Amino acid sequence: MNKARVLFLCTGNSARSQMAEALLRKYAGDHFEVYSAGLEPKGLNPYTVKVLEEIGVDTSQHYSKTLDTFMGKVHFGYLITVCSNAEENCPVFPGMGKRMHWPFEDPAAFVGSEEETLQKFREVRDQIDARVREWLKELEIPIN
Predict the structure, then answer these.
(1) How far apart are CA 61 and CA 50, in angstroms?
(2) What's the CA gap between 13 and 45, in Å, rounded?
(3) Active-site residue 83, yes or no?
(4) What is the pLDDT of residue 95?
C-alpha cells in the first residue's frame, strides 16, 4: 500500500509543525508518511519535546528541517501549514498535492514563567491533537 505523504509546515519547525508531525504519525502512521519543515528552522524547542513526551510520544528522531529539504524532491499528497507566516510565504512547488491551512498560536513566542510557558505548549499541543483527530475522522481513517 502506498502511503500518502503529509508535510506540516511552519516558520521555525520547532513546535507546531513538529507536534503535528508526531501526532499524525502516532495516530495514523500506518496510513501516512509524515514530515515537517520550516521556512526558517530554529531547532526543536525543548518544551515541544517535554509536552510530547508527557503523552507518550518519542521525539528522539525529530529535528528541524528546512522546506528546501523537500522542495521539488518529494511529492506530498497534503501540505498543511500550521502558521499564518508559512501560509503566506510558502511557495507553490512541484509535487505538492492538496494544500490546507490549520492556524495555531505559536507557543515558542509566548513570554511567561517556565510553568506558564509549559502550559501554553500543552494548550497548543492539545489543539493540534484535536485537529489531527478531526481530520482523520473526516477522512474516515481509524485512529491507532
Answers:
(1) 14
(2) 9
(3) yes
(4) 64
- Is residue 47 within 8 Å of residue 109, measured between CB atoms? no
Q: Please identify which of the residues 28, 37, 67, 90 carries the catalytic annotation.
A: 90
Q: Would you say 11 and 86 are in contact if contact means Cβ atoms under 8 Å apart?
A: yes
Distance in angstroms (rounded) separating the CA atoms of residues 30 and 26: 9
- Catalytic entry in 6, 9, 10, 37: 10
Residue pair 110/131 in contact by the 8 Å Cβ criterion? no
Residue among 51, 83, 96, 132 flagged as catalytic: 83
- Buried b / exposed e along 19-45 (16+ C-beta atoms within 10 A): bbbbbbbbbbeebbebbbbbbebeebb
**pTM higher than 0.85:** yes
Comparing CA positions, the residue from 42, 120, 135 lying closest to residue 86 is 42
Give the mean pLDDT per block of 10 residues along the chain (144 residues): 90 96 96 95 96 96 92 89 83 77 95 97 98 97 89
- Burial class from Cβ neighbours inside 10 Å (0-12, 13-18, 19+) for residue 125 reads buried
